Amino acid sequence: MRVFKFGGASVKDANAVKNLVSVLKETGHENTLLVVSAMGKTTNAMEAIVNAYFEDKALIKNNIQESIDYHNAILIELFENAKHPIFEKVKGLFDEVLGFIAWNKSPKYNFVYDQIVGYGELISTTIISAYLEEIGIQNNWLDVRDFIKTDNSYRDVSVNWEKTQQKVTAGIDQTKLNITQGFLGSDDNNFTTTLGREGSDYSAAILAYCLNANSVTIWKDVPGVLNADPRYFDETQLLNKISYREAIELAFYGASVIHPKTLQPLQQKEIPLHVKSFMNPKNPGTTVGKGIGIEPKVPCFIVKKDQVLMKLSSLDFSFIVEDSISELFKLFHEYKMKVDLIQNSAISFSVCVDNRFGRLNELLPLLKGRFKVVYYESVSLFTIRHFTDEAIDSLQNGHQVLLEQRGTETVQLVVK
Question: Is the pLDDT of residue 148 over 90?
Fold first, then answer.
């Protein structure tokens, strides 16, 4: 069996849905499981509903109506019959969102988030399944929450692999075309859980692992895995092959094409991962699998913007050793600072962190109580795998390099 994952950009409107059908016709669709994300920017729209629920309930009705209008416009283009049952099905799903908002008593943001945001995937797959049937492609619509079982750490769950394996083995007919949702699971009380932003790739890998799939294909709006993000770099090159190890390294440093968690279950069973263009499905794209390194072997550039570089030094010139470093990491964990780079000497410690939760100003007074602190906000962290002198020079031009760290295969630069 094959697993195909289609992200939001690949189903963002009616033409995109029709293109998904073209991909299926070109590649065949027997013995295939489709894992589909919410349409376009629907996840953002659902997040706006959650935020309105907590901050300004007067906005909820308008936010939901915008999402209804967006999906109805897609339905009208896909289904000529205005009385097709799909219209009522989609309305029913939005009614469930309103119903949850009406009866919910939980004050916990993360719980409410998971119950509301996941409707984006339920709606998209309901529409696509109905459209496939409408044009004569039979399929089974599956509620992924019946299969992927997790704990109840909402928005940051761990998969219960044993229960998930049992559910998948018993409930998915591998001889058919099946369609289900990315991003979602459920806990022991059958409340919806989510696997984290960009977690649909992970969903595909979980299901592929449990199905012993032959392959996973992620369909994207790029030709495959590139050696750099074309939004930030002018010249990019397609990577034809990448080993699991190399892909995990790239994901660790922040490459955004493949979700980090996705690779681990695939590597365990040596299931190849293909990253291909949904606009050119016949092109080979990139294959991630068993092997050594990358092909072609070219420098790979990764950038993380809006980072914070902190340089800490001891106030009394005492050594910064294990107990000090341990205390620092406890603080970084407590204040939700994701550490991306560290460098230390006898009396100084430099760290580049992602202040994504905006708690830097709470952390700084605690650090200043023990260390001399110099910090730089809005810096960029560049990582080059398989670096060359020319590749490094290309990043240094016009930038102030605040910190540099080199290994045998990787160089990292913090620049302003």
Answer: yes
Dihedral pair phi/psi, residue 324, rounded to 5° = -65, -45
Backbone angles phi, psi at 375, to 5 degrees: -135, 150
Q: Could you tell me the CA-to-CA distances from 109 to 17, 112, 284, 367 in Å, in that order?
A: 32, 5, 43, 29
Distance of alpha carbon 147 from alpha carbon 209, whole angstroms: 13
- Give the H/E segment covering residue 3: strand 2-6
Instruction: Please check the confidence at residue 156 and state whether its pLDDT lies above 90.
Output: no
Give the model's pLDDT for residue 197: 67
Task: For residue range 309-339, list pLDDT tens digits in order.
Answer: 999 998 887 788 788 889 899 999 999 899 9
Residue whose token pair is 């991630």: 288
Query: pTM score, two decimals?
Result: 0.88
Distance CA 180, CA 26 (A): 21
Beta bridge partners of 171: none
Q: Quick one: DSSP state of residue 150?
A: B
**Angle 46-47-52 from CA coordinates, rounded to 5°:** 100
Burial 215-224 (b: 16+ CB within 10 A, else e): bbbbbbebbb
- The neighbour count for residue 129, using CB atoms within 10 Å, is 23
- CA 223 to CA 163: how far, in whole Å? 36
- Phi and psi torsions of 404, nearest 5°: -135, 140
Report d(CA 234, CA 345) in Å as an integer: 36
50: enclosing H helix or E strand: helix 42-55
Q: pLDDT over 90 for what percent of the chain? A: 85
DSSP secondary structure, 48-88, as one string: HHHHHHHH-GGGHHHHHHHHHHHHHHHHHHH-S-TT-HHHH
The SS3 of residue 385 is strand
pLDDT tier for residue 231 given thresholds of 50, 70 and 90? confident
Length of the chain: 416
pLDDT over 70 at 155, yes or no: yes
DSSP string, 269-333: TT--EEEEESS-TTS--EEEESSSSEES---EEEEEEEEEEEEEEETTS----HHHHHHHHHHHH
Identify the residue with better confidence: 2 or 229: 2
Q: Answer whether 359's CB lies under 8 Å from 335's CB.
A: yes
Task: Specify whether the backbone of 317 is left (phi greater than 0), alpha (psi in -120 to 50) or beta.
Answer: left
Residue 252: other Cβ atoms inside 10 A: 13
